[in-house]
Design brief:
Elements: H1 34-39, H2 44-52, H3 55-65, H4 77-82, E1 94-99, H5 108-115, H6 117-131, E2 135-140, H7 145-160, E3 176-181, H8 191-198, E4 222-226, H9 227-239, H10 241-246, E5 257-263, E6 270-275, H11 280-287, E7 297-301, H12 321-325, E8 335-340, H13 345-359, H14 365-382, H15 390-400, H16 410-430
Parallel strand pairs: 1-2, 1-4, 2-3, 5-8
Antiparallel strand pairs: 5-6, 7-8
Cofactor: FMN; [4Fe-4S] cluster
Function: NDH-1 shuttles electrons from NADH, via FMN and iron-sulfur (Fe-S) centers, to quinones in the respiratory chain.
Catalytic activity: a quinone + NADH + 5 H(+)(in) = a quinol + NAD(+) + 4 H(+)(out)
Length: 451
Amino acid sequence: MTLTSFGPANLIKRSAETHPLTWRLRDDGEAVWLDEYQAKNGYAAARKAFADMAQDDIVQTVKDSGLKGRGGAGFPTGVKWGLMPKDESINIRYLLCNADEMEPNTWKDRMLMEQLPHLLIEGMLISARALKTYRGYIFLRGEYTTAAKHLNRAVEEAKAAGLLGKNILGSGFDFELFVHTGAGRYICGEETALINSLEGRRANPRSKPPFPAAVGVWGKPTCVNNVETLCNVPAIIADGVDWYKSLAREGSEDMGTKLMGFSGKVKNPGLWELPFGVTGRELFEDYAGGMRDGYKLKCWQPGGAGTGFLLPEHLDAQMYAGGIAKVGTRMGTGLAMAVDDSVNMVSLLRNMEQFFARESCGFCTPCRDGLPWSVKLLMAIENGEGQPGDIETLLGLVGFLGPGKTFCAHAPGAVEPLGSAIKYFRPEFEAGIAPVSAAVPPLARPIVVGA
């Protein structure tokens, strides 16, 4: 699968009017550097923002556009920007780009950073102007070595062109931008854990309030936004709120377009920029091409490993937050995974929960102890050694680790697919329960070290 797979040519033709994120992409998949980016109207939005718009007007425009965070939580971006302090005496503020894309089955930000690094830089430059931040960091997943190389080159190009550094575009505004590679922890996707890691601390989430807008990096006001979120900003500034809203399908409560994808044993796995409100069926059949010959769709996840499983009959749901919520889960990152009929759901969930258990920061008891407990039970069921009551215990853990029960959203996301898998495929779990005569006393059952 390539990162430039955009579906059959007769289905999609990218243009600035319909594909604000991807229309500049090269057909050969190579990065778009400064000269080519500017020839494709790059940095025109930044020039407009600096020359013609007051800083508060930029914030209001983004708020009016309805842009929401694209990292999975979906919080309104303009509202988040509005939380930054208005006090002009606070002259040290930070803008953080969350590029720690470690959600399994998600690779959309990688494509943007590798192939359109200047789009992210322009988005951050406009955002910094709006938020009065003098320094920015791109907190990048450490394994994204190509993205790091391309971003660093693009930063140097922007500096040489006077688009970063001192007195940008003659405005008197200064903005420095740094690429910071992380050490490889999933929990850094949580914004306050990211801040702790950036400061050189252990990547544990912080208690909120205070929120980063008040007390963030080194105690200063900080705004954290996702890569795809920031990449939407230039088009909104350049072409306006009404145009941006018009991109979404009728019925969608989310505005603009979204990078969506499908992986698994589909005929055309890939990534596409599509309007909010397309159906899962369009994404699966028209773009991903349906299942490969010899395979049947068993279930699918709409947006990364931390979203619940859905059945084939749920494919008619519209792909936006509210549309996916109607069928019982979350939009997440918008990159779906097809599970074929050869997959055992117990084994799949055991693999997922092992990942989530390993990536827990260990700060709160439900997550630290509950996730390894789920792995222990799933391993027993997978090996046909499950005991009566194990499924009920797993469902109890889904409740104990749900929203509002833990310090951050890591555990709720980890158990959401588990709960949905048991809901839809309980017989597969029951098949791993040993006969009562073979039951092992709980205290005699092996402890799985490191699970």
